[in-house]
Every structure is written in structure tokens, then in C-alpha cells.
Amino acid sequence: MLLALAACTGSGYAGHGADVTPKARDAPSPAPELLRFDIMSGSITNHFYRRGPIAAHLLTTSGPAPRLLVAFPAGNAGLVVDFAPLEEPVAFGLAPLATLEGVEEPEGKRGVTARLAARAPALRVRHALLGGIRFLRDAMGSGLGPGAPSLAHTLDPGPPLALRRTMLDGHHIELRVEPSEGTTVTLEDDDVVLSAGPGGEVRFVVTALLDEPPLTPFPVESIVHENAADDPVARRALAFLTYREKFLAGSWRFLTYFGRDTLLALQMLLPALEPAAIEAGLGSVLDRLAPDGDVAHEEAIGEYAVWLQSMAGPRPADLRAPVLDYKMIDDDFLLAPLAAVYLLDTPAGRARAQAFLARETPAGGFYRDALRQNLARVLARAAPFAARPGPETLIALGPGLSVGNWRDSNQGLGGGRIPFDVNVALVPAALRAAARLFASDLLGPDPAAADEARALAQAWRGAERYFRLEIPEEVARARVNEYAAALGLDGARAVASIEGPIPLLALALDDAGRPIPVMHSDTAFVLLFDEPSPELLEIVARELLRPFPAGLRTDVGMLVANPAYAGDPALAAMFTRADYHGTVVWSWQQAAMVAGLSRQLAREGLPTRTREMLRAAERASWEGIEAVRARRAEELWSWEPAGGEVRLVPFGQARGHVDESNALQLWSTVYLALSPPRP
Fold first, then answer.
1. Which residues 6+ apart lie within 8 Å of 215 measured at CB?
2. Quick check: helix, strand or coil at residue 665?
3. What per-residue string of b and e applies to 94-130 under the rule 16 or more CB within 10 Å gives b?
4. Cα–Cα distances in angstroms (integers) from residue 27 to residues 9, 19, 24, 34, 90, in the given order
5. CA gap 95, 152 in Å, rounded
6. What percent of the chain has pLDDT over 70?
């Protein structure tokens, strides 16, 4: 991986918390900072470029069906070119000694250019799409579906050959293709065909351009403290995804604002981040709150927003206005804990709190009032359970929705509707944080609201009991053995690790309040936000120490789900290694777990046995993290059986995988605030 840095400056950047000092009139303008690096992930090579107003991610896929994709943070737009399947797999990527370079042209067009090479006699374009990333994601997944707009582009044979499209928001995107070193480009039955030159390789230059307004990056060295972990990959990833206007969730698939991702990343990165970066992220959440304090999940921008707005009734005056999605339930309870820790507990936050809360939202209100609205929403949503405790008054997914927490694939909760993480960890944490904020001078103080929040928090401490299960030892052994055999794994060690009944904390409850018997990693939220009992801590430790499928531990990291104890093939089929939230490894969940373990080990008064089990679980978890250290910035990965054990497989690069992993994910950069335990 390569990171190139030129001279950097903080001046000239405006936004949340920007300290802009006017330049002397005769001072020369410093060169924009250059961020350029590469990440290999199986058959995909990712190239990242950011300099001044230019930011882009170019990826190439090698194999029997080569692919080129370029994604731009500006406008969350991009393009993809799929080449027709070949008889033999080919290596496809940047030509030797080539690098990704920036391009700026008149009329606001900017982008990247690169020399590409494929060891193939010819490449035939099967189809190409230029437009909003969300449209590209849908098209490459289940398809655009009825009612989707036309994404048709024009083709100019050139030279150079160019694909051009005016997007729904009026902005323009373009791909130019220029053959080189003897390669020729022709049109055959309206298909673009690149034929190899005398050297037997297809070689050509691509230039991808877009005229969407750019985002404003933070200089790399101004994002994290000097004492942040020495993790160059995480630093580069965070820099590519962090802007004055907002943090982006991941690349290439999620180059826009996501509330949950921003809040969780900030929560875990807090010890390493500079105040201006913290306030940019926190401010972006407050800027997008609904009037009732609901945290926005995702922001649709660019032409995807125009399409959504055009279908709205009545149509808004500005079709290009962003569209905010508020369907998630977990993000509402993530804002208060972060605000309390930053504004009340950190020296920088305390010093800057009054000025930060006095800033205005785009709607014209103050951050202080927006935060208060969110806290009021937290109390209102928590009140029914405190008054009438039971599964029916816990926080459930929205009516008719199958998603609502971070496991936001349609079967991520196994048909459950009342998630463990929201009800056992996040609601109580938000109530405790609300009590602290209401009791402070920042929001009043408001003693009555603080007392109400404390009383509600106490009532919610009993929510855990509805998620408790216990599997008899013999049943557990039989189910684990059968499940291991079905997966092609040697289950002997897993079965041997079962000594006594298995206590299980259900992933979720269904509509009737029945537990979904799937082991999971969402206990990390309890460790991060609460002070659970020694008994619960030991349950978590055993799950982290037992080898899969008795627990969550594998040689490629901690799995986020394990349906072995359910004894239900239909439920197990929702949690395979090909499923987005199945028996796979998510980088950020491992980070959250070790952060939570470290937090619990800092507590005083834990029993000696509990502390030793937590230490063992922490060591085991870090062993899994370090075993695949090179992949830590990625979103997730999977595995396949090999000789009875597990072998890492990039997610999205094996048959049956339902989606594709991002090479960079915002909350996978949180290792910058973590360090492994000392030997």
C-alpha cells in the first residue's frame, strides 16, 4: 500500500468547528495534500485517490468476468463496466508502474485517470452503468426493478471513445477509454470491444469524470491525535471517508452519511480523534435530526435523491434536496451516550461544549435544542416499558419493516422484531446519558427531566431477562455436533468445550415475545455501554473462548452469529457464511468487543474468576484480530471449510454471497483508538 502526502494545511476549509485564518495576500497557496493508497482483497484491487477537490475510488476485478468500477464521494455517484465472461480467468488491473492520477477540467469536471492492462486477447463490454451509487448497488444486486428511471448513456466513438450521461440532478458523468500500446477499440453489434495488441495484452487508459460539487476533506494529520494507534491503513481509510460536511460510511457502496455508522465510529474513536473531527461528525447528526429528535439513518443525495423527490407527493420545490431515511430504531439511542461522553467527560469537549451547542442547524434551530429533542424522544420511547414491563412494550422494529438495527439485512434478525442490542444495551445507556445531560448546565439544568431519565433507566435494567435461554448440555452437544458436520467442520473441539448447560442471550424476540435462539456478538454493546453482572460477563467470555460452532471463535476472527443451538434448519439457513449478517466476521464488531472487554476489565470489584475469564477472552479476541490484520479496514469477510478448519474468503467473492464487502468501512477504522493487551 502506498500513501503519498504533500504539504497540508488546515486553512481554506470551512464547516463545523473550522478555524479559518485569513491568508496574507502575498502568501503563495500551498499544494493540496495528496492521499493515495491501494488495498488488495482477493480478486479485487482497490485504488484510492484524494487531493483537493478530487476524491475517487477505482477498483478492478480479475477473474473470468473482469470489472471496472469508479466511485466518487461527491454526489455519491460512480460508474461500473462489466466485461463479458472469458474462457479463462484473467488478471485485470493497473498496468505495471501505473498509478491513479487526478484530473481537473474546465466547467467543474474532475476525476481520475489510470492505465489499465488485462492479460486477455480481448475485452467486450457486456454492460455499463453511469449514475448514483445507490442505483449501481441495486442494479448489481436484485436489479433496478419496475419504476426505476432510465440510466441510458450516450456513446461517442471518438477518439477517445466516451460514455456520457446527464444525471437526474443535472450533473454530468463521463468515462473515456483510450487504447494504447497497439490495443484497438471497435464497435461490434453496438458492443465496445478492446482487442489486444502485439504483446498479447489489452492495454488502455480510462478517465472517469464528474462535475458534482466536491466535499471538503480534513488534512490527514488533523483527524487523530499523535497518540492514536500506529495503524497506517486505518488512518488512510479514515481520511478518505472523513469530510467537514459529514463522515461517509464506506467505499464503494456507502459513500454517503449514515447516522448509526457515524455515531458508533465516533463513540469508539473518541479517545483518538481531534475535537474538530468529533464535532464535524456529531454536528452532521444534529443537522439531520427530524423535528421530533429522530436520528436520520441514511441520506440520499445526487440523482437518487432527485428520483425519490420526484415520486413524493406533493413534490418539493427543490428536487435536488437530500432525502433522509428515519426507519432505523437503534440510532435514536446512540446520540445521547456520545454527546454525554464528549461534552461532559473529555477536557476538550467540556471547553468547547457551549460554543458547539450554540451552533445552528440548517433548519435554523440551535444544536442545544436539537439534542434536547432527541433526549425527549428517548424518554418518550422508554416510558411504556417502565410503566408496563413486558416484551410487548420493548422497542420493536417499525410496522411492516424487517430491519431496524445494525443487522439491517432482511433476515439479519432471523425473523425477530425486538432486537437484543437496542433493548438490553442502547436504551438504558441513552437514558443514563440523558440523565447526566439534563442535570448539567448544558441543557438547563433540568432536575425533573434528569430524575425521570434516571427512573426510566432503573426500570430498563430488567429487560435482559426476556432474552434469556438455556440449552441442556446433551441437547447442546448433539446440536453442535450435527451442525458442524453439516458445515464440513471437525466439531470435536467445539463439542468438548461444552461442559454443562449453555446459557444463551437471544439475538431478538419475535412478535409474540419468543426468543430467537441464535448466539451473537451484540453483547459487545452491553460491554461498551453498561456494567453487567459477573454472571453475564462470564457468559460472554465463554462464547468468545469456545471454538465455533460451540461459540463464536474461529481462526479468521469472531463470528457475528451462530445458529448451532437453535436445532432449526430453517433458522440456520438465514445465517450462513454467504449471508450479510450470517456466520461471517465484521471487523467493527471485533473492535467493539475488545473495546468493551477493556472497559469491563477497568472496573473495580469484579470477582477474580470473572476477571481472569475476561482477560482470556480479550487475548483470544485479539489473536483473531491480529491473524487477519491486513483486512481490518474492510467491512466484513467470510470463510470456507478446509480440512475441517476454516479458511478466510473475501465476502462477495464466492458463489452464493448475497452482497459485496466494502474495502473501506468507517467503523472499521476504530482500531486507531485501541491497543492489544500487554503480554
1. 55, 73, 74, 243, 244, 245, 246
2. strand
3. bbeebebebbeeeeebbbbbbbbbbebebbbbeebbb
4. 13, 18, 5, 21, 51
5. 30
6. 96
Q: What is the pLDDT of residues 233-276, one digit of tens each?
A: 999 999 999 999 999 999 999 999 999 999 999 999 999 999 99
Q: Is the dihedral angle over the CA atoms 411, 415, 417, 423 positive or is it negative? A: negative
Considering the entire predicted model, what is its pTM?
0.94
Q: What count of other Cβ atoms lies within 10 Å of the Cβ of residue 336?
A: 26
| Residue whose C-alpha cell reads 432505523 in the numeric block | 328
DSSP string, 22-68: PPPTTPPPPPPPEEEEEEEETTEEEEEEEETTEEEEEEEE-BSS-EE
Q: How far apart are CA 452 and CA 434, in angstroms?
A: 10
Say if residue 27's pLDDT is above 70. no
Residue with cell 476524491: 55
Contact residues for 58 (Cβ-Cβ < 8 A; gap 6+): 46, 47, 49, 68, 69, 70, 100, 112, 114, 208
pLDDT reported for residue 152: 95
Query: How many angstroms separate the CA atoms of 585 and 578, rounded?
Result: 11
Residue from 462, 329, 481, 298 nearest 402 by CA: 329
What would the grid cell of residue 678 be?
500487554
- Residue owning grid cell 483470544: 620
For residues 205 and 115, is the Cβ–Cβ distance under 8 A? yes
pLDDT of 29: 59
Integer Cα distance of 339 and 430 in angstroms:
10
* Beta strands 44-51 and 34-41, pairing class: antiparallel
106: Cβ contacts below 8 Å, ≥ 6 apart: none
Peptide linkage before 198 cis (omega within 30 of 0): no
Over residues 634-645, the mean pLDDT reads: 94
The answer to whether 414 and 563 are in contact (CB under 8 A) is: yes
Rounded to the nearest 10°, the torsion over CA 238, 240, 244, 250 is -70
Q: What is the gyration radius of the CA atoms in the chain, in angstroms? A: 26
CB 624 within 8 A of CB 553: yes
- DSSP character at residue 316: P
DSSP tag of 343: I
Distance of CA 663 to the CA centre of its chain: 10
Q: Which amino acid is at 232?
A: P
| Angle, in degrees to the nearest 10, between helices 427-439 and 447-460 | 160
* Cβ–Cβ under 8 Å, residues 354 and 442: yes
483-499: per-residue pLDDT in tens? 999 999 999 999 999 99
H or E segment and range at residue 378: helix 367-387
